[in-house]
Amino acid sequence: MLAMEELLTPEDVARILRMTEASVRETLKSGEIRGFKLGGRTGRWKIKPEELRRYIEERESQDGN
To answer: Residue ranges of the domains in the chain?
Structure first.
């Protein structure tokens, strides 16, 4: 089972990717980065570390084409 402290917030992802939090939230809403909300529709976004790795690898492979 995934421990809560292993989940990333949009703030964490923004810092890692050097993006604004608003940009991270847009990528979450569009589905580019897959995340989920804890607490329903008005809850806070959470992202699994492996999902962030997938997103980074996908972006790197696109940049290489």
So the answer is: 8-63
